[in-house]
Each structure stands twice: as C-alpha cells, then as structure tokens.
Amino acid sequence: MRVISAFVILTLTGCTKPPAESAQAKADLGSIVLQYHQYVGEHREPPTHIDELAEFEAPFGWLQGNATVSSQCTTSLRSGNYVVIWSYNIAEDLQRNESVILAYHRDVPTSGGYVAFADGRARSLNKEQFAATDKASPTKASISD
C-alpha cells in the first residue's frame, strides 16, 4: 500500500521523468539510429522518408535481437514521438557523426531529453544544449513527412 501511495504522490507532484528523458526514449532512439545505419549500409544512401526506414528489412534480421530492434524501430517511428533528420548520409563524414544530432524526441527543443547522434550514441541534453548542438543536414532531397 505504501509503494502505491508513494507512486501516486510522485506522479501527481511531477516527480516522474518526462517522456523525452525516459529510458524508453533512449532505447527507441538507439533502435532508430541502428536501423538508419543498417539502411545506409544496405542501400548505400540515406533514407529520405519515414516509410523507407520503417519498411526496411534489416539485412541481419535473422540474428537474435535484430528482429526485435527492427520492430521497435518501426513502432517508434510511427508513434510520432521522434524527429529524424532524413537524407543525412552518415557515410560521407564519419568524424562529423559524433557531433551532429540525427534524431530526437519531439519534446527535446522545449523541455530537453534524449537525442541520438549520427554515430549512434544517445545522450540527454537540456534545451539549451540541444539548441547549441549541430543537427544533421540532409545531403540529398528528402520527402517531407
């Protein structure tokens, strides 16, 4: 009973993490960037739209865990909770990938939270850090969402 009461109090007082700062957001972003990397590796060009990435069959989907990552990626993309910078070719400038944001939770610009860098790392940034960090820029024309 005490555990339930504490949970209700924490929830009502706003002491739980916002969605953009949750472990689920970090996991979702990780699966999105992994799928993005696999897409570029297979097609030799970046995805230009959500459908290209969401419908992509990972080349190693038969390996344990990869099918789960692919499914999680599709679910995350379709949720509308994440912004992905389409058409950024991660293979063109590998050194730059560690410093540019490729995907982020939609609330990050106003509240902070997890972002995924083009090199695959997910990290929590506050809104000021997010504003000051470079975002990936399309290297070819993309289809708007």
UniProtKB/TrEMBL annotation:
Superkingdom of this protein's organism: Bacteria
Name of the protein in question: Lipoprotein
Organism placement in taxonomy: Bacteria, Pseudomonadati, Planctomycetota, Planctomycetia, Pirellulales
